[in-house]
């Protein structure tokens, strides 16, 4: 029994040993398989060991050496970390600064100010931080505390950072470009050309109603805010160029409505007479341009820019917009051939410039407008010298138009340029010219044909009226004196009476009442007398009316006064005659032949005399002292006597 127990125990022990050996074998096989799988990975690790060794080599220095350099590293890394933090902040501003500033300009400018502040910090500290880091690298290299290749790579990186063109990657430049575009947009959206002035007849009444077209205050404030940032970043010249482009185009558009093509056409003209209407337009257009275009622009430039920049900006706008073209036109007039009419053109040019003298001095008086000043002075010089040259020869020219030999005169080559000017010299010359004109007019009045004697009275009435009306209250009128003016007024009345007496004044006598008072010859005899007298009146009236309908009195006041005199001489007499004797013929079968007009018809017809009608012209024949007859023909636009002034 005991033996059996021992055998069973031995078997169990063997079984357990076998089981243990089997498990060990399995583990051995599993380990072998694991080692087989790890082989490639170990090879990979083996290949990476050199680079890992290089990476950890800087920290393989002795503890004592690392402790000694630790303080230096901390002092260099602190500023570098601050710089990196600011770089991160700059990067965070990028979305806002790349957006459109028109939607929130104040917010955009605030973000831009933060960028500028960050860039100032970077410009002040980035270089210092890089220098400290470079010094640490030198220290590590000198003490062999890091791998040389590692230090070389760091050195190269620091050099690249030091050589970088900008600290913000071009963000500030992009933001300023957007501000410049917004500056131009604000100008364009708030600039509108000023309408052309009204017609000359309404210009004076509407002058006060013409208002400049300024940029609204809110827009100006935005422009100023943009300019502040642009100027602070060295881009003021870009804003000035944009301003000149936009506002200059605005003024050119305003001037285009005036139709200024004639300014360039005048350079080919040589006849001062033909330039008369253009000179008048030039004066009006120049005044409009100076007072209503350049004046507001001058004020706006002063409001938007600093004084020096504003003056330069305005000078560029004025020159670019066309002020020099106005001056070239005046010069072309001053260079026309010498002619008495040229004196009037030169005086008109000078008068227009003189009226704007204070405006020119204020607007174009700065150093920036030197070219405009030079051309203006040259124009005034040419106009004055041209006028003087003709003026000193004018007396000779006037006397040559007379029918008597010209009187001896002082040499006509005097001028303001060649000799010292005296008021008395000018006064004496003017008095001589006026006296010569009076002589000419008197001679011309005697040169009409005998059958045009009435026209000579009209001629002299017109002449004396123009002397009186247009010289009264002027400097020339003061020079000539009140007695001289009153004398011409009296002569005007005298010749008006002579004109009336020798023409229309003869008609009332044709409506005689003789033989009609008592109807001494009976009613039939009275009717015949009335018929004959009305027929004679109608024939004379028609002949005289037809003849004088071709005459023109240009001056409205004189025309109305003359027509009133004629009406008062004819109509009351005719009305009274028809009231008393018209019934004698009105019931006759041929009444329309004799009662041809009513008093109202005559008044209307006589009141319309001496008016200009398109296409009407009149030739006046004048007999010279030698007996020959020449024609003095007025233009198709003026059929009044040639003495009209």
From TrEMBL:
SUPFAM superfamilies named in the record: Cullin repeat-like
Cellular component GO terms, alphabetical: exocyst
Keywords tagged on the record: Exocytosis, Protein transport, Transport
InterPro entries, per the entry: Cullin_repeat-like_dom_sf (IPR016159), Exo70 (IPR004140), Exo70_C (IPR046364)
Organism superkingdom: Eukaryota
Entry's Gene Ontology BP terms: exocytosis; protein transport
GO terms assigned for molecular function: phosphatidylinositol-4,5-bisphosphate binding
Gene3D superfamilies, per the entry: Exocyst complex component Exo70 (1.20.1280.170)
All copies of domain Exocyst complex subunit Exo70 C-terminal, residue ranges: 281-406, 413-607
Record function comment: Component of the exocyst complex.
Family label: Belongs to the EXO70 family.
Name of the protein described by the UniProt record: Exocyst subunit Exo70 family protein
Native species: Ananas comosus var. bracteatus (red pineapple)
């Amino acid at each position: 029994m005991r033996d059996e127990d021992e055998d069973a125990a031995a078997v169990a022990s063997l079984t357990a040993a076998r089981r243990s050996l089997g498990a060990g074998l399995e583990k051995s096989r599993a380990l072998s398989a694991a080692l087989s799988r790890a082989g490639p990975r170990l090879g990979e690790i083996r290949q990476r060991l050199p680079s890992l060794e290089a990476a950890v080599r800087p920290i393989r220095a002795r503890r004592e050496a690392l402790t000694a350099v630790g303080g230096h590293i901390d002092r260099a890394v602190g500023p570098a970390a601050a710089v990196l933090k600011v770089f991160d902040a700059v990067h965070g501003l990028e979305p806002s600064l790349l957006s459109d500033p028109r939607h929130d300009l104040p917010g955009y400018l605030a973000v831009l100010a933060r960028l500028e502040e960050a860039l100032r910090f970077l410009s002040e500290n980035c270089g210092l931080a890089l220098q400290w880091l470079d010094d640490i690298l030198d220290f590590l290299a000198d003490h062999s505390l890091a791998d040389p290749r590692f230090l070389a790579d760091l050195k190269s990186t620091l050099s690249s950072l030091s050589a970088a063109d900008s600290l913000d990657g071009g963000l500030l430049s992009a933001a300023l470009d957007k501000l410049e575009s917004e500056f131009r947009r604000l100008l364009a959206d708030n600039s509108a050309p000023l309408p052309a002035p009204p017609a000359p007849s309404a210009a004076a009444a509407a002058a006060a109603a013409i208002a400049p077209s300024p940029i609204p205050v809110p827009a100006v404030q935005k422009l100023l805010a943009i300019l502040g940032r642009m100027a602070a970043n060295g881009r003021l010249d870009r804003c000035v160029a944009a301003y000149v482009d936009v506002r200059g185009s605005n003024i050119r558009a305003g001037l285009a409505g005036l139709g200024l093509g004639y300014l360039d056409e005048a350079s080919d003209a040589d006849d001062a007479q033909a330039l008369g209407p253009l000179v008048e337009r030039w004066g009006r257009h120049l005044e409009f341009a100076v007072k209503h275009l350049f004046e507001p622009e001058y004020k706006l430039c002063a409001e938007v820019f600093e004084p020096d920049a504003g003056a330069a900006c305005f000078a560029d706008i004025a020159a670019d917009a066309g002020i020099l073209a106005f001056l070239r036109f005046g010069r072309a007039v001053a260079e026309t051939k010498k002619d008495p009419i040229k004196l009037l053109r030169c005086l008109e040019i000078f008068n227009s410039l003189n009226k704007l003298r204070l405006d020119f001095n204020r607007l174009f008086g700065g150093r920036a407008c030197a070219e405009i000043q030079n051309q203006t002075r040259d124009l005034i010089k040419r106009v004055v010298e041209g006028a003087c040259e003709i003026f000193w020869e004018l007396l000779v020219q006037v006397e040559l138009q007379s029918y008597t030999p010209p009187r001896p005169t002082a040499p006509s080559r005097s001028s303001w340029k060649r000799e010292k000017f005296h008021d008395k010299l000018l006064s004496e010359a003017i008095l001589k010219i006026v006296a010569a004109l009076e002589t000419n007019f008197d001679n011309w009045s005697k040169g009409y044909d005998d059958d045009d004697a009435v026209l000579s009275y009209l001629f002299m009435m017109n002449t004396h009226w123009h002397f009186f009306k247009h010289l009264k209250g002027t400097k020339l009128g003061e020079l000539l004196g009140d007695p001289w003016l009153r004398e011409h007024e009296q002569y005007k009345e005298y010749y008006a009476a002579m004109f009336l007496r020798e023409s229309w004044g003869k008609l009332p006598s044709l409506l005689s009442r003789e033989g009609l008072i008592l109807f001494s010859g009976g009613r039939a005899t009275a009717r015949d007398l009335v018929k004959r007298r009305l027929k004679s009146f109608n024939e004379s009236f028609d002949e005289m009316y037809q003849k004088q309908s071709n005459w023109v009195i240009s001056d409205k006041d004189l025309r109305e006064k003359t027509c009133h005199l004629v009406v008062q001489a004819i109509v009351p007499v005719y009305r009274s005659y028809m009231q008393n004797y018209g019934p004698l013929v009105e019931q006759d079968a041929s009444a329309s032949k004799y009662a041809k007009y009513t008093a109202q018809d005559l008044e209307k017809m006589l009141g319309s005399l001496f008016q200009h009608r398109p296409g009407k012209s009149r030739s006046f024949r004048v007999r010279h002292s030698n007996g020959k007859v020449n024609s003095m023909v007025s233009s198709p636009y003026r059929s009044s006597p040639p003495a009209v002034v």
